[in-house]
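Feature request, filed as a ticket because there's no other form

It would be nice if the structure record came with a short human-readable summary line next to the tokens. Right now we just get the raw output. Example of a typical job, pasted below so the devs can see what we mean:
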Amino acid sequence: MSTAIPSIDQLKELSLPAPVSYVPQTWGWWVLLALLIGAALVIGARRYWHWRQNRYRREALVRLAELQNNGDPVAALRQLPELLKRVALSMPKPSPVGASLLAKWPSHSKHRSTASLPSPADSFPQGPAALSKDKWQVFLQQHSPQQLPVDFAQQLAQLAYAPDATLAALPEQQRQQLFALSKTWVEQHHVAA
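Raw output as currently delivered:
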């Protein structure tokens, strides 16, 4: 028997295992990756579409801030009703979902026809441009998430047609309230999809 002590020079370094690949090894991971990418694209497209649909809001809010900081309060108050009317005209038009499919169904079908569906445009067939007085108030209230003053449309009409002296005599608190109500309506009004 040999009693020789092995030297450290005889030791060999252990080899490291092959590096682990980050590429998925099974088809299930590829499917999951495709679903995640598809979902990200759909969410991104919806957000972009929503951002584009609300361009009129952003522009109106910028214009409203300019009017509120205007040095001439009478001119700013005069332009407030026009701004709200422009916002109402710029709102995306509602389109009933599935109306084109319902129109293709035969009239003798057991399903509902398009004539029986209420159209969102039925309540204001002329559109917001032709609305005045009570109908304008109803339109503003229907699209507002919060209760508006009962005479809000009348106040807007006064801003548009009253003499300059009447507008100059308005108290500062009432002016700020009109701007605040207008800003809230522009920011929060809902549009039928």
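Something like this underneath would help us a lot:
Residues 27-53 form the longest helix (27 residues).
The two ends are 93 Å apart (CA to CA).
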